[in-house]
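Recall that a protein's primary structure is simply its ordered list of amino acids. Everything else, from secondary elements to tertiary packing, is in principle encoded there. The following example makes that idea concrete.
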Amino acid sequence: MATSDLQETKLDAKSQTSVHDKHDPTLANHPFVESNAIPLPEKRRKKGILGFFGGLSREDAEEIERLAENVTYTKEEEMAVRWKVDLRVLPIIILSGNAHVLPEFNKNFDITNNNRWTLVLSIFYVGYCLLEIPANILQRHIGANRFFFMSLAWWGISSLSFVYSKGFKAILALRVLLGIGEAGYYAGMIYYLSFWYKRRELAFRISLCMTGVVPGWIGSLLAFGLVRAHTSVLKGWQFLYLVEAVPTLVMAVVILIWLPAFPFSCTFLTTREKAIAQARLREHRPKSHGGASGWEGIKLVSKDITVWAFVILYTSFNTCVATISYFLPTLIKALGYTSIQAQGLTVGPYLVGWGFVWAQAYDSDRTKDRGYHVMASASVGLVGYIILATCAEKAHGASYFAMYLITGGAYSMFPLVMSWAANTLAPTSKRGVGTALIVSVSNCVSIASPQIYFDPKDSFRKAHALSAGFPRKQKKNRFMGLAILSALFIRTRLSMLNKQKVRALAALSKEEKELVYADGLEELPDDDLRYVYMT
């Protein structure tokens, strides 16, 4: 039996009994622990809230954690709790992530050449990069509902401002504001979901929330339908920004009211169910309060070579995602279609890509594998870029088919890589800072990603070759090929670390093993001998 399977089997077995042999004497006769009776939810005044940016009640969180240490529950009860979380938390996160879509072009802002357009695309990432890590630390302090409300409200207002803005300077300023609004959102969403789901449940849930293919095909349909709309008040492109802004602002309010900040503060679970939701995550023990601080998380992340390997992996494929999301209509138009036809034809690659994303994420969770699935997705994207680089104008059908491969391969790596990183990094502060760092550094590189497709004279063959990983002159820049190599390195490294931990545990005496397993750490760090990496 695989090491990770062995650990999860032990954890499932423990779910029928007490977690620790040493019970808290204050809870020994607690009816919550001794029986399956479900007490009525307790209503408390949240303490420690000093305005909107105040923290949540530490006492409530600590109570649920104490109860979770001793709660006993059946598999059926665990599944019922997870189903409640799926029905309440996931729909809100999914809708918030897919409420906004960016149109691909705008003639109102004096974008007279390709250089100006690539600058507009690139400047978006400035605020994104600078605020990613601080935003993630802020989320843990004020709770997910307030943080996501701020993010979406800022984004929606910025998007709404496009409707009546004019000029090149205006679009540059608004693009920076959009980047600030999106900073911390995707990494924060992954961080938030890790408080609700086991490691082997995470990739598929992330795929439902953050792939980007849903905004892609929705945006394509909207652009195809609305770009020709004209009234005495608004033009087609203004309708696009209006349609993307209003749902985002609505979702901001929905999130503030209905999304739980943390599992311990949710109202749709009883006190017992909250403890079960916490107890079933014993394999990585997420902690909403206490533990290592944000600064300690930064120090842990900075000296972990695995984190930097994830940075390289994420950067390599995210550069391809950034370019294909911006230039897909342009590439299709180059095959001989009109601008409106090209906009409509982007729907196909995004829809097929959506299915591939879900299939990869589901199978990754089912098989408890991340590395091989990441390499498979990168290989699919690599083949697509090779076809484009060699058949750009010679075979239009093959080139269009290649765009399906690129979209599915590149976008499917989002949930796989980010769930893999979240599975790997512990404690909670390291996970939050680490996922934010990965996204932040990657988006710093993405500032330059639109520049890859700067020269259409050769039908973007050089850009396709660069994205694939075999450019002739820029030999230091290899994207999909680099993604495969970095994923192989991470999987090999984590597998070796798991084997080292098994050997270290086997070398301990019986008394030493008892001391290790009796260690009542609030959180299990990833360098602990009991922590098994998902490979």
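The chain has 24 helices and no strands. Residues 1-50, 98-105, 470-477 have pLDDT under 50 and may be disordered.
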